[in-house]
Design a protein that fits this description.
Elements: H1 2-24, E1 39-40, E2 47-49, E3 56-70, E4 80-97, E5 100-111, E6 115-121, E7 127-133, E8 138-139, E9 142-146, E10 149-155, E11 184-193, E12 197-206, E13 225-236, E14 239-248, E15 253-264, E16 267-276, E17 288-297, E18 302-312, E19 316-317, E20 320-321, E21 325-338, E22 341-353, E23 358-371
Antiparallel strand pairs: 1-2, 2-3, 3-4, 3-23, 4-5, 5-8, 5-9, 6-7, 9-10, 10-11, 11-12, 12-13, 13-14, 14-15, 15-16, 16-17, 17-18, 18-21, 19-20, 21-22, 22-23
Pfam family, one: Porin_2
Family: Belongs to the alphaproteobacteria porin family.
Protein name: Porin
């Protein structure tokens, strides 16, 4: 009897202690699993997965410090120099879908001392000029892509051109009354790329807010309009050849252009040519132009590229080309200091003859750029 009572008492005591401990127990919460940033190598180097998604993101850009200099000229310019620092940021997002690669690009840029300027002889014979400074961040190329389809704000063919700083694809020789090309606009493009052969077709919406190429009294500029353009590109070993055509519906004029690059000897030869049927937003720097450069690879780090270009019939009056010509010669040197840091210097001489006025100018710059 005593043993039975002792067992019952012991069991009750243990139960009470267990209940008391259970009441006082602190249960620690399970830690949330950490998701580390994963490298995405499906679209090239530099991409990483945005945590919690299957979207790959790449952050790039550059910081550029540059000093520009030029001599005096006969069109109202002053000799001197200008310094500028630029910040350029690009965000690229990509992911795979059942329709192909879905991509989006956002590009922002700002300059401490930059201006978009123009000078033009209007149809009534008056001389007009303007300069628009831009110190704040502004939207550069920004678009959406799905497969071969691109919509948004992006450059057309005339912003490409040769890597040196002498042959100009989207600009005119100074003071000639022409604007060159309107290269950055809202548009829609489809590209078919077969590797050695590619072709794209594009519709441009030339908006009146495009800046320095618009709102010039007496020229018909400053109104919304539509243009179409296309490029065919072929690659044959070390040779790349492309052909461009663009048509401005508002001015009812077209422009043609072609670029040839070929690996020859210790460098690369580049030739650029363009022809304009009259005033248009793709190219109206002159009736026609041709230029060439040869980029010589002196070493793995140092490249030097002499170049020359000629423009004919550079005076634009009432939408048609009249007379005058211009030529330009120069040299550009590039040096890779280390990974991500490079220097570039150029010096050019330009001579312009409009038939009634002539001018010549030396210009150049020295640039240091950190890319990432």
């Amino acid at each position: 009897m005593k043993i039975t009572s002792l067992l019952i008492a012991s069991t009750a005591a243990l139960a009470s202690v267990t209940v008391a401990q259970a009441a006082d127990a602190i249960v620690a919460a399970e830690p949330e699993p950490l998701e580390y940033v994963r490298v995405c190598d499906a679209f090239g180097t530099g991409y990483f997965y945005i945590p919690g998604t299957e979207t790959c993101l790449k952050i790039g850009g550059y910081v550029r410090v540059q000093v520009d200099a030029r001599s005096d000229d006969d069109f109202g310019g002053d000799a001197g120099y200008r310094t500028n620092t630029r910040g350029h940021i690009t965000l690229d997002a990509k992911s795979d879908t059942e329709y192909g690669t879905l991509a989006a690009t956002i590009t922002l840029e700002a300059n401490t001392n930059s201006s978009n300027s123009y000078s033009i002889t209007t149809p009534d014979g008056t001389f007009d000029s303007n300069s628009v400074a831009n110190n704040d961040f502004f939207l550069d190329e920004t678009f959406i892509e799905l497969g071969g389809l691109r919509v948004g704000y992006f450059y057309n063919y005339f912003d490409t051109g040769l890597p040196g700083e002498t042959v100009l694809s989207d600009a005119a020789p100074f003071g000639n009354g022409g604007f060159g090309g309107d290269t950055l606009n809202n548009g829609i493009r489809y590209t078919y790329d077969a590797g050695a052969f590619s072709v794209y077709g594009q519709v441009d919406a030339f908006d009146s807010q495009d800046g320095w190429k618009d709102d010039v009294p007496g020229t018909g500029r400053g109104q919304d309009e539509i243009g179409i353009n296309g490029v065919i590109t072929g690659k044959f070993g070390g040779v790349t050849l492309d052909f461009f055509a663009g048509y401005d519906f508002d001015r009812e004029n077209a422009a043609l252009a072609s670029t040839l690059t070929a690996a020859i000897g210790p460098g690369s030869l580049g030739v650029f040519a363009a022809y304009s049927f009259g005033e248009n937003r793709y190219f109206d720097a002159s009736e026609w132009t041709i230029g060439a450069e040869y980029a010589i690879a002196v070493s793995d780090k140092f490249t030097i590229a002499p170049g020359v270009q000629y423009w004919d019939n550079i005076t634009l009056v009432d939408g048609d080309f009249d007379d005058g010509d211009a030529w330009r010669v120069g040299v550009t040197a590039d040096y890779k200091i280390t990974t991500g840091l490079s220097a570039k210097a150029t010096v050019n001489y330009t001579d312009v003859d409009t038939g009634t006025d002539s001018a010549d100018r030396w210009d150049g710059f020295l640039r240091l750029q950190r890319s990432f």
